[in-house]
Amino acid sequence: QVQVMESGGGLVQPGGSLRLSCAVSGSISKINAMAWYRQGQGNDRDVVALIRGDGSTNYADSVKGRFTISRDNAKNTMYLQMNSLKPEDTAVYYCNADIAYGSSWRSYWGQGTQVTVSS
Description:
Number of helices: 0
Number of strands: 11
Oligomer: single chain
Helix content: under 10%
Shape: elongated
Radius of gyration: 14 Å
Structural class: mainly beta
């Protein structure tokens, strides 16, 4: 009964900004790592940014310096601030959350939100 819901996608011009949100709801004890993935014109779903439970982060080389991942643990919500957007950032962006249940864990996916960067 865990739900993962992305929001904030839309159409922006090159150089513009957008902030994506990922809200996790349901029966949650602890969220460990969370990550943003994206799937563009190809078949691959590639990791964009990762944030661990301790707040440490990793970014794909293509978005370093432009995107910032963050989380609000009290709200069970993760964010992706996207600045200086490029047309090649156009993709469906997916949220992934690793939720712990005692000594075990399970990964959950959202349905995705479309980001289109075009003039």
